[in-house]
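For the sake of transparency, this paper describes our internal protein records without simplification. Such a record has a labelled line for the sequence and another for the backbone structure tokens. Nothing more is needed to write down the fold, since each code stands for a local backbone conformation. For reference, a complete record is included directly beneath this paragraph.
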Amino acid sequence: MSRRNLLIGAALILAIIGARVVKSCQARGPEHSASSTPSPPRAPAGSSLTRMRADVAPIPVESDPSPAGALRLQGLVLRSDGAPAAGAVVSLGTTPPRTARADQRGSFGFDKLAPGPYRLEARGGSTVGGPITIQLSERTGQVTLRLKPAAAVEATTVDAHTHQVVAGAGLELRGDGVLTAATGPDGKAKFEGIRPGKYVVKASAPGHSPVLQSLTVADASVVERVTLELGNGAAASGEVRDAHGQPVAGIAVVAELTSTLVSLADAREDGATTDQAGRFRFAALAAGSYRFVASDAAHPPASSGLIALDGARDHAGIVIQLEDSGRISGQVVTRSGDPVPFAVVRAVVNEGALGQVLARQTQCDEAGQFDLGGLPRKPVDVAALHDSATSDTHKLNLRDTPAVSELVLALDADGTISGSVVGAGDQPVADAVVTAEPSTSAARSRAEVTLRGKLSALTDAAGKFELRGLRSGASYLVRAAPPGASLNRRTSWLRAPTKVEVNGKTVVLHVETDGRLKGQVQREDGGVPDMFSVTVDGASSFVGGGGTGEFHVPDVPPGVHTVTISGPSFVTRALQAVEIKPDVEADVGLIAVAGGRRITGRVLREDGSPVPAATVTASRQMAGTSVVAGPAGAQMGDVRQAVSGDDGTYSIAGMGITPLNLGAEHAGDGRSPFTPIPPGLEDVKIDLTLKATGALGGTITQQGRPVSGALVLAGARGAPAGGNGVTTGTDGSYTFDALTPGTYTISAILDAGGGQQVKQGIVVVKPGETARLDVELPLGAVTLVVHAISQGGALTVPVRIVLTKSEAGGAQPQPGATPSPTIQTQVVTGSDPARFAGVEPGMYRVCAALAPPTGGAGSASEAVKASCAFTSVAQGPATQETSVSVAAR
């Protein structure tokens, strides 16, 4: 799931997919670091844009069972020294997944497969190969997977109240598959052979409520450590009924915490299945507000109302009412009308950047026929995919026509991009990794990325490649990486792309061997930081600590980079203009880091008693009412957290000299007022007193209908930049259980075809009361095309364009009043214009600014330097154009 930078007025709101800011006592990995020094601009071509696009993760696709076929997939697994990897386990991305074990020659095979795309990954001990995606056909030859050293994950389970280790707890590490383990007497378990990427760790034990935690595995071969606290819980039960009031048996129900931006629960792994009477039961759930969601292949997702659990008393009587589903059936044909066997048909319900969005797919039979049910009665986008061609995107409104039959999807997008990859001396490079993505923002929307996937190919023995199934007249950004490069490795996206036209001339891509980076981190007092991370141009690269302070970063593309050293106990330091040469290890030497300011104190109740296990958050003061989420947001706001001890004491180190905001919270005892800290060099001691909180809820609608999957952010002036964010359920509702009393800016955010649509409102939250703010998102019929015109030279970096409906006199919304005008924002590059869809008639303000060079790690003041113009949108025509100037960097 994807969150991207949002520029709203004078505030920078970040919504980036990934792990939330986690507590410093549990920190392990670059996503937990914070930056008190903005990263400076740098020269490489387009790397921030490519990294941002790499973060546009597709919606998880629910797939019907894979059909059986007559093909066999054969392959070979090799160790890093080229020897056969006997015993390696190969995973095949079918539904359900299949595995095979390599024999003594490293060979493996899968039988009874239908033609189509398949994902392969191999794991052998502490090494991993892939993942790669192959298009299986009768022409497919042997596939080779090469194992490389990988990271490990060490998980520790402790009791949330006693802090004693929990032995015998069941652990799951979830990525593309699921790995299982059990903790030993020391409460620890280890997973090996873990490739870079994002994971979810689950811990469960008798007498405790299960806990889920997100984890990002670093690029280097390190041990990522994570601690999971198992608390108490109580049972929750209810029933699922269909649209006619009848019980539904065999459907999975999942409990989703409404306080999280992204639900980590998985229906297959965490769901409770209903019995013959439609009843479900969870044995133990922790305190919090939940939304119970039911779904299966025959029914679209449906959720209960918001349910508050106290974690101590059982809760019964939860009711989930399903709605009637939509269905699409038809045939996939070639351009000439011939049926296409085993083509993939995919449908996307695209109602938001996060949360309750849905993507489903099925595979045609031998006659090209397909039948895809269980879809919500909402607008959906549908496309067909094959190894040689794809169809156009068909937009269907299942609200008006719930059953669409005899739909013909013609594979008429059969354009190609072909070329070769060469290395030193223009010699062909075999097995080079070639990737491509559309150059226009509309084609990079989350719906389109989900429908069509990410394009990649491997070069053959002559270094040649071909990307197929592309739309004629379109252009793509194409890049090549050395053999064995992982698309999940963030540094892979630092390579400069080449813009290529479909069906154009053959392109030659030059690839250089990656370089390496090393150095040593040391505190100014001569000690070594307990924990630190190294990032290259914002890409997670290395995590270390507790040793010599040395670091080694492999696989760094040649060029000039910014290297950032950060950690929870010192002020972040950025090294500019670090040059990396092919196949050479650059040594940046000894890097001294300053300890910075330390904030200490106690978290107390109003009666003066200490509050253990409270979360204390500090951040750099930012303009407006900023809300940040994710690792890049945490770095930009210098967000750091600590957990109070049994005596209520806390300590946050490594803060800079800039003005700071501070606050504390505890699920049972409330939140402290927001506390500003003036700039300075001296350590600060502040006690934080928790007080009663207020709540906030509402509904997000569009044309009067509830919108699921809308991202809702609540920001208050003076609050630490960590902020608060939730998503709406299938009924369009959202809730914030506990907010510090005060005035909040509420932002409702939707994905809008390559950008975001944002509407803001103001609401006052009072202690012990529940405030309400409903937001209606407009939907017009005009597409406004905005061209960014350079004031001085060609634009070689991303440009952010913001479209805001203008109100007379620039009136600002008052608390409880109608929300402010809608804002839409997109990031474009080069000569590509922004295309804002669903625009209503009226007067608009159009602003353009160069996007931050490190994907959002720049300062807030830098981000809002923009040039603006006014434009009028009429009732027609359906497509209108305007322009705005921007100064080239």
In short: Residues 47-54 form the longest helix (8 residues). The CA atoms of residues 570 and 594 lie 6 Å apart.
